[in-house]
Amino acid sequence: MISEGAATALATVGTVCWCVQLIPQIIYNYRLKNCEGLPPIMLLAWVVSGIPFAIYFLITKGNIILQIQPHLFMLFCGISFIQTLYYPPVSWSPIRIMYVIAAIIVVDIPLEVGFTLWLRPLYSRGIHWPALIIGVIASVLLALGLIPPYFELAKRQGKVVGINFIFLFIDSLGAWLSIVSVILGNMDIMGIVLYSVVAVMELGIFASHFIWCCRFKWFSRETKVHDQEDQISVVQSEKTIDNNNFEKPYEEQTED
């Protein structure tokens, strides 16, 4: 362990990021009353990934902050997941949504308690491969959760729709801080992989929208043509207004 104090501090900041990162997305969804472009399967995969994610850090007796982090991650992902089911384009009934959430909770609690009680003693005796398998499952689910947004990007030529960039930035920041905390702490390779999956996949989403802006918004010929047309329309409108203002006094004088 390089620095326990630094590792704890960075893990704490990373956890704070992962506590609040989905709040902008939740507010964004609530204001729009629409979740077009935000795939429900993405958030479901993240909620489910939190189960092996939490089990892994409970088994390995990681930093207490890292043990809390997956549960907070699941909570806010769950809220956003409910929104994607309730708002268009899915628009499920509240009762149907309650059944889904209840099923997740019923599966989550026994799995966390059972696997932790079973595998923690094994891990303490040096048998690490069961924890490694659970960590791999968590990594795969995290990666799978970030694949559906790429299909949404493909539909829109790389444009990000429905995903709040403040959420994406805070989430990525939390992942990078957590990576550094693990490096400074116990140098747990699987922990680094878990967070790196999120960081790299989200960086790809940023890059996709940046490329879209370069292609179609900032440097597009069509955009320049539209801007010129808009300017011409504005000039013509101003001329029309000026002509009308000029004709009115002339008409009044003629009537007199």
Automatic annotation (TrEMBL):
It comes from the Eukaryota. PANTHER family: PQ-LOOP REPEAT-CONTAINING PROTEIN, SEVEN TRANSMEMBRANE PROTEIN 1-RELATED. Its main location: membrane. InterPro entries: LAAT-1 (IPR051415), PQ-loop_rpt (IPR006603). It is found in: Membrane. One of its GO terms (cellular component) is membrane. This is LAMI_0H14774g1_1. The chain crosses the membrane at residues 38-59, 71-89, 95-119, 131-151, 163-185, 192-212. Keywords: Membrane, Transmembrane, Transmembrane helix. It is a multi-pass membrane protein. Coiled coil: none annotated. It comes from Lachancea mirantina.
